Amino acid sequence: MSGNGKKVGIVGSGLIGRSWAMLFAGAGYQVRLFDVVASQIPSALEDIKGQLERLSASGLLRGTLSAQQQMELITGASELSDCVSGAVHVQECIPESVELKQKMFEQLDALVDGTTVMCSSTSCIAASKFTQNLKHRSRCLVAHPVNPPYYVPLVELIPAPWTDPEAVTQTRQLMIEIGQSPISLNKEMPGFALNRIQYAILNECWYLVSEGVLSAEDIDTVMKDGLGPRYAFMGPLETAHLNAEGMLNYCERYGSTIEGVSKTLGPIPHWGGAQAEEIHRQLTAMVPLEKLQERRAWRDARLTALAKLKKDADK
């Protein structure tokens, strides 16, 4: 345990908020969970309890505290003030809407002092879009997790132009403390980093299916049984570095080929219409809609096992 009983506020009790609550509790923090729809809190707490118990039973629970001890650190808050007052860190997890985030951060700004860091879990909205008029705007930034955060450790930290560098440093240290893997963007960029890379992959996958080159199932096999195993342990740049005698040699060997193939990549597709219906048909044949929750549980279990494998391998 490393949180020393310090308080963290989680605003939003959906899947992302629940994962954050579990992560902070696993590191010993007192967690207050708030939702504007107060009736959702009991079911969120029950789901968290079930997740912690299942993780404990499978030997994959994070931290040194038992599932029961972690659960005792997580409580619901009926008022936003109770959630965030005195918190060292606030993690906002509300829907992706600039208007909603502006309103929420205005409320948060009025409730915290200059020591609390306020982070948004947004996957695409820059902090400068909803913090510019706040008194404590220098304590605001984006801390974008990967869904589901408990099972995938990456967190993107993106400051606004006015964010105090110390707030970024504090958040980065906090993310490491709770077992996440933070990266820091030096400036705001549409889509941040993860989604820019993800969208580039998705766009080309869409193009290959639309051109009849591969089925959706075979496209996914390319990643899970081809690129994915390598990328689970190293990034694409190190992969290239190791696939030759260093990056300069890689560029000498394959640079012209990469440039030539890249000129044939598909255009940015329209994510809708007949092609979307066809890809949806293929994917539902692989995973029927009624099986999505079951498949998500399967995904989470394997991501947790992979995280444990990677941690053990690093030792």
Automatic annotation (TrEMBL):
Residue ranges occupied by any 3-hydroxyacyl-CoA dehydrogenase C-terminal domain in the UniProt entry: 191-257
Classification via Gene3D superfamilies: N-(1-d-carboxylethyl)-l-norvaline Dehydrogenase, domain 2, NAD(P)-binding Rossmann-like Domain
Protein's UniProt keywords contain Transmembrane helix: no
Species the sequence originates in: Amphibalanus amphitrite
Gene Ontology MF terms in the entry: L-gulonate 3-dehydrogenase activity; NAD+ binding
A family per Pfam: 3HCDH_N
UniProt keyword list: Oxidoreductase
PROSITE patterns reported for this sequence: 3HCDH
Family: Belongs to the 3-hydroxyacyl-CoA dehydrogenase family.
InterPro entries: 3-OHacyl-CoA_DH_CS (IPR006180), 3-OHacyl-CoA_DH_NAD-bd (IPR006176), 3HC_DH_C (IPR006108), 6-PGluconate_DH-like_C_sf (IPR008927), 6PGD_dom2 (IPR013328), NAD(P)-bd_dom_sf (IPR036291)
One example of a Gene Ontology biological process annotation: fatty acid metabolic process
Domain 3-hydroxyacyl-CoA dehydrogenase NAD binding stretches: 7-187
Tree of life domain: Eukaryota
Protein name: Lambda-crystallin
